[in-house]
Give the backbone structure.
Amino acid sequence: MNYYELTVELSDFDGWNDIIVAYLADLEFESFHVETPLVKAYIQQEAFDGEALQQLFDGINQEHEQIQSFELKLIPQQNWNAEWEAQFDPVFIGEDIRVVAPFHDLDDFSGIEIVIEPKMSFGTGHHQTTHLMCSSMMEMDFEGKRVLDMGSGTGVLAILAEKRGATDIIAIDIEEWSAENCRENALRNACQKITSIHGGVEEIPMEGFDFILANINKNVLKSQLETYVNRMNRDAKLLLSGFFVSDTEELKKLALSLKLTEVAQFEREGWAVLIFKK
């Protein structure tokens, strides 16, 4: 599978890098690497829509003049891992979590270490939403719990759930290669409680969950939220991320209409995580 790498140079990087990432995610770009003043985004060759991208950039520049330049490069499948290895630095989430790649050679770590070979999947800990989800999970009791990781990507959240004591974890992703990547990373981290499934919301088992983790884009969350609620046990927690702080009121309104109680909201560089209880 070939990918396109899009490199965008911004006029106001600090003010616009998160906004550009969100816009590109809506165009089906899947993974991002952000480093002043550039944003690099990756999309499957078959999913790329050049006309839609040009319309997006034209619209932004007409009103805000933020796109200084952009470059598109085709990356053959065999070069994908080399691209990741060149850009994937270790990620520290607080003092308790370290997300690393197999090729990193680091000192011993006393906290939870998660080894991720990202390949083409989302979830290396670099993005603010993954950081928010992991930080929130560290404040919760997963011991003996049943967990659903929806949109699992690399499996980083499912792996953290097992390392925090969860005993039954279902990880679901709509991309077959993500489901396979999750399985590989689970084995790499000696996890035995994770079942990785290729599919969508229809693959969620009927049995109830104590935690549901969903780090996906806003529109998918909205379309699937009622199903999540129906699969939650009494007192279960729902952690949602993958959206901007400006989108939180819309999601809160929908969650409250489904009889969920808001527990907390946390923010990081313009992105948010919402936590609800049934």
